[in-house]
Amino acid sequence: MFSEQLEGWLRGEQPKTIGSLIDLFQEKSFAVLFVILLAVPALPLPTGGVTHVFEVIAMLLSLELIVGRRHIWLPERWRQKELGKETRETFARSFLPRIRWIERHSHARLGFLLSYRFAGIVYGVVMLALSVTAFFAPPFTGLDTLPSVGAVLVSLGVLLEDPVLGILGFVIGVVGILVVVFLGKQVVDLVGRLL
């Protein structure tokens, strides 16, 4: 199961780099990286902009899917980027139990559809839209949470081959985009009036 593999990686002795995660999950590494990278901004906690690095990497991965890549290419410097101990502990404490719950209730349906190139392109477009929205959400507002949650659920739908979960994530992501656009505009207008 995905959660067991991920927990083994989180608690193992190997370096906790993005590259080691890619090597472990191989073909599913796109979806795994989206889950890991966008899980932190999915938490309704102020992160002080540190999540922007993760969102930029998610955008690059999205573009790779759109152009039809099946294996991840990242600059060596990014492959060597280590996920910090605090990020790993937060992920293990906050997200692993939720992932296990989703795994128990998920049903693999129509997984063969994901093998088509077009599905990868659509997945890349969706992830790009959600990553860009999370990136441009006004800082310290928590508005990046909904698009990030949507991206995590879509990616879990891909990992678990459950289109219902993917559609749920897509709907949450679209709601997140709308919230960022409308509330973000209000926040920017308010700050503009104060200055």
Write down the secondary-structure element order. HHHHHHHHH
Spatial extent as radius of gyration? 16 Å
- Return the domain count: 1
Helix/sheet category = mainly alpha
Q: State the distance separating the first and last CA atoms.
A: 52 Å
Unreliable stretches covering 5 or more consecutive residues:
none
What is the global morphology?
globular
Largest sheet: none
Which strand-content bin applies to the residues?
Answer: under 5%
| Overall pLDDT metric | 84
Total number of helical segments?
Answer: 9
Say how many strands there are. 0
Q: What is the percent of helical residues?
A: over 70%
Topology, pairings included?
Blueprint: H1 2-11, H2 18-25, H3 29-42, H4 51-66, H5 76-79, H6 85-105, H7 117-136, H8 145-159, H9 163-194
Helix pairs in contact: 1-6, 2-3, 3-4, 3-8, 4-7, 7-8, 7-9, 8-9
